[in-house]
Amino acid sequence: MTSNVKSPHAHMNKLSGKTKFIEDMNLPGQLIGGILRSPHPHANIVRIDTTKAKAIDGVVAVITAADVPHPPFGPTRFKDWNILAEERVLFIGDEVAAVAAESKAALEAALEAIEVEYEVLPAIFETEDAMLEDAPVLHSSAPDNRPMHLQLERGDVKVGKEKAAVVRGGTYVINPIYQGHLEPIAAIASWSEEDGVTLWAGSHIPYLARETYAAAFGLPEDKVRIIIPPIGGSFGAKYVLKMHLIACALSKAAARPVKIVLNRTEDMISAHPRVPLKMEVEIGADEEGRFVYKDATVYANAGARIYWSPNIVATACTRPDGVYHFQNVRAEGHLCYTNISPTTCMRGFGNAEMLFAVESIIDELAEALEMDPSEIRMKNIVREKDVTIHGYQLDSCKLDQCIEKVKEISGWERKKDLPPNRGLGMALGNHVSGFRGIDPRFEGSTAVITLSSAGELIVQTGEIELGQGMTQTYATIAAKELGISADQILVKSGDTERNPFGIGTLASRSTVMGGNAVHLAAKEVKRKMLELVKETTGEDGVFCYEGIQVNDRVLTLEELAASYRGLHAGDQLTVRATYSPDTDRPDKTYYGHPSPNYPFTAHVAEVEVDPDTGRVKLVGYWAVHDSGTIINEVGAKSQVYGAVAQGIGWVTMEELKVKEGRVQNPTIMDYRMPGAADIPPIEIAFIDGSDPHGPFGAKSVGEVAIDPVPGAIANAIAQAIGKRGRALPLNPEAVWRLANDYE
Amino acid sequence: MTSNVKSPHAHMNKLSGKTKFIEDMNLPGQLIGGILRSPHPHANIVRIDTTKAKAIDGVVAVITAADVPHPPFGPTRFKDWNILAEERVLFIGDEVAAVAAESKAALEAALEAIEVEYEVLPAIFETEDAMLEDAPVLHSSAPDNRPMHLQLERGDVKVGKEKAAVVRGGTYVINPIYQGHLEPIAAIASWSEEDGVTLWAGSHIPYLARETYAAAFGLPEDKVRIIIPPIGGSFGAKYVLKMHLIACALSKAAARPVKIVLNRTEDMISAHPRVPLKMEVEIGADEEGRFVYKDATVYANAGARIYWSPNIVATACTRPDGVYHFQNVRAEGHLCYTNISPTTCMRGFGNAEMLFAVESIIDELAEALEMDPSEIRMKNIVREKDVTIHGYQLDSCKLDQCIEKVKEISGWERKKDLPPNRGLGMALGNHVSGFRGIDPRFEGSTAVITLSSAGELIVQTGEIELGQGMTQTYATIAAKELGISADQILVKSGDTERNPFGIGTLASRSTVMGGNAVHLAAKEVKRKMLELVKETTGEDGVFCYEGIQVNDRVLTLEELAASYRGLHAGDQLTVRATYSPDTDRPDKTYYGHPSPNYPFTAHVAEVEVDPDTGRVKLVGYWAVHDSGTIINEVGAKSQVYGAVAQGIGWVTMEELKVKEGRVQNPTIMDYRMPGAADIPPIEIAFIDGSDPHGPFGAKSVGEVAIDPVPGAIANAIAQAIGKRGRALPLNPEAVWRLANDYE
């Protein structure tokens, strides 16, 4: 039931509908679980009575705060979580009680029969309101509702301002959007007094989730086992979730396995959209178009609890400074608790958001200075061997070539002569390949390779396949090192009890972190296998497609496995290798070199705006990437296609409309995401180049591919309508209003 | 649910009734399974109709041969097994069909409702009959019903016979006995199309069982997972069992977990007693009491199928020649198929059986030569540094000291002046500590030690705890090497998917094979931990009870674990070590040095025989052992106590009475085993001494402790009644008949 996939099949199975997701799984004796949620954005729980619910035929367990432990815990240092709301509810959708029942009918009847008396409290929804003197306090640990307040300055922005010939900027607003995973959020928990709890859930950071959940229940970590079935998309939504804990608590109470599948509405109201941001950003340039400062203030709405929003604020405040030399930068970040659903990660993780502002402003500066947008960019970008203002060491950087190439393939020169209502927009992006600081204790990855008796090389990793093609990439890395067919390699992951520790799939880390570990292990297994051939045949062998060539014959991996077992008491050849990157945990001022390498990209979008409706149609898209050596080209291109499509939805369509804490459009019908007809032809190119720190020279691609999308599209729209939109989404209504100066 | 025990608790839990055996376990959705068995010793199956059985309410699956695969398979090279009888049944109790049902009532009704039409065939029950020209053939692979016919000679027995001044011998008969495990044979199987089958069963050689079961179902090995819950005794009965396969087949058919628990009668008729032997043995001695030859012919009744009876025959034919220098030996072994339940291993494994004959004959030789039984033994025993006639290299052997010591503590000199009806008998024994040849491919063991985040050293092994105290022994070995408290060590085993490969617990191999592997791994983990201390503190550390002392402070294992994880990307310190013994697989003539070392022992039994009833009362028992360094004294003594008690039952009480293939006494009430009142005070001494090949100098103790028991008791009885009993059991009727010359 884990994601032990021979790499190519995984995606085929998804495409053909054969993949079994959690919803398709059933354990013997399994109950159906459901959650009673708060209808109020902020209220005291005065009374809960579950008597009637418990009496319903087919209801096996009904739990409330009284039935679960309440230690301080949470996935980050802000330990503001609970399993079920103890005294207060903090948002519409907050988890108040839960039921496990034999049937859906019994479950629904029981959820209705739970009596809850609330005392409604004043609520806050916007960051401005959260910071008011007399605002209600959501968590006593943050009396000002600001769990995080970041301030940093490098260089001297005052000096930069004095040098500036042109200044542009404004307030940029990032819409709360739904990650839009096709597979709804689901989990099965099976609790046993003896063995602890086993949780089947789509977490892509299961080892950190295990630590969080163990703390929640006061269990030792080895009594929590997380198994990851195939994941049908996450994009940041499925890291660590309270519904996982509730499934565990229900299974404990019922002493039977419990499955919870959120329906799409629950998923959309409770499962943590992209952090909404308000960003006041200003960039100044001298007469020659050299940037002299950047000044940014970010207001981030964390919602009712902390997931990874602090890291997103820090990323927004720093990461784009690794694309351009701004010379002097100042950033301030305010993260506020409010009475909306907790907000969290989504592909791009703060960087895509701030780049939307930065790339918009740069186009305005170019216009003011009468420079081509590509020219002002080329003048200011970071270059190979640079150390950026926050300390990133760029041992590879082909951003200049990305710009040249994207101009070439997009026919950039057309920009000057476009027909009316058309626009071509450019934007750049960077990212990390893992980030030293996600886990304050360590970074890196471990791979274990075993030569099975059947002659397969089994690669075990703690990193997680969530559709990004990790298993194919790891199989390719091992096969490339050994010089054998990737068909003989089986990548296994997704079980905290069987596989080695991994931080998991976030911060675009899987190719470089896990990939380097796999590469190290493959080198060691190669050495040991050649040693074995020498020991058993007296000859030197050479790897070939099917195995190891020794003189005139090929020893198959199966034969080698039998030889090894014969010499080693039946044990299988097993190697374990750890990759620990030579990076820094950023210091208190956010300075440091946190990633082994940094991918770069330049995108161009071409749009046509319908002047009557404001509808933006993408007519072309070009993406050129410096992600070092491309190991898995199909996978890498798929990441770019997907990210661009996702970006198009984000910029031109999507928005969770939240009114007084209530999501107004919590269905896929009311929340429009792009379909195939919305996506233009996307042309992708990779710049040749190898980074010294990646496996075979690779850098990441998963998130950098979305980073420039908002900026590129916004810049294209600005040309098409002659007006600048600073709030996402730039949907038909917004674009029409802008174009027609209709506030 | 696996046997992950902090060592001291395991036995306490058994004593206090807290241990959960398979019968106490239940999986969600589990069905009850049962087996329909043949009522005939040999018959063709003409017709099976399961229609009525399937129609019974609550019956989920009914399977026959038609529902299971029929590849050639079996646990040894004699691949004569099936999952369910295909065309013929071969013994009373042979498995014909099986049912999985919701309730016991439904199960029993279904078993009764299965219609089977048999054509009864002529049957054979004794080895003599099996070898007759016109005997019915049980397996076409052995047209003479003799799957094995062993012949060996070393030296020249003819020359020995010419030299002999005295010859004694006769025909010795070994009773079929039940291993008498308290926990009945049970299994739970859970089959999933995706993951294969998980089997909870008490096998103590689960990795070899996995290979056998995978072959039976045509699955790859990694689709068969065997988990070993605490085992309530086995003594050889629970290695690999057809009922395990039937549980798997039922679970597959029912698509739900299935539990089968044999009732005691099923257990006793179908679950493979000790191989009954008939042994014609003759030993000659010269005038000075030096043995000049031994000539033995063994007839072994394998029953209907092969488990490990061939190995038992080979052991009977060779192993006792490692106690004495017989100078010239000849042995012939006939293993025959018959229509009784397959017979298999029990503690002592052929050696205890042949030693019964040898030790009986030696006493007769001593009498003929007017020597003290201890004197003739001392004159002929093997000594340290000897190489025995079959090639065993005795790098340690303190058998002479065992004899001296047992004489001293038993007051041997009393033998001459015992009151009437009393007897003192001596016997010697040897054994192996693992046997190169159980698995033709390899011998040895692998241990993996992990420093957990909680600061425990987790020792993983593929060997199995079945009550012999292995976990305590391994924890002690690791603690002794490291110099820390054994409380910080957790030994885990019993899951083929999680733990490294191990051949398992048989041939008295766990202390030396697994123990050496644990010792090697402990040395490596010690080196790595001290290296870590040096790396992190710059100082040299020294292990102490609680952790590692560095200058004035103690670094706990938890602190070390955190340091290690910090430096290694979150991975836990893990070492893997394999012990491969420097031994030989015996050649075709059974020559070789198959074990790293050999334990020795001398026992003395004192009996009083009631002349009116023939009842033998043990009044005293003394056991002196050379098992090298004793690592776990409580465990080692427990092995001796248990083996002597078991031997007393074997020799004086127990016998499965089989008449025309039908067990006449298949209940614990009718099959009397010893109780506390039957066991005399047992005095145990261990000779100091260290063997160069054992962990800290240890040798095995589990089986050597039963090897001399039959001979010692038989010799004591012979003195008490003045007659020699050559057929076991020497129960009251047999002894009374002997004493009264009543045939």
UniProtKB/TrEMBL annotation, chains A, B:
InterPro entries: Ald_Oxase/Xan_DH_a/b (IPR000674), Ald_Oxase/Xan_DH_a/b_sf (IPR036856), Ald_Oxase/xanthine_DH-like (IPR016208), AldOxase/xan_DH_MoCoBD1 (IPR008274), AldOxase/xan_DH_MoCoBD2 (IPR046867), AldOxase/xan_DH_Mopterin-bd_sf (IPR037165)
Superkingdom in the source lineage: Bacteria
One annotated GO molecular function: iron ion binding
Domain Aldehyde oxidase/xanthine dehydrogenase a/b hammerhead: 16-122
SMART domains found in the cross-reference section: Ald_Xan_dh_C
Protein name in UniProt: Xanthine dehydrogenase family protein molybdopterin-binding subunit
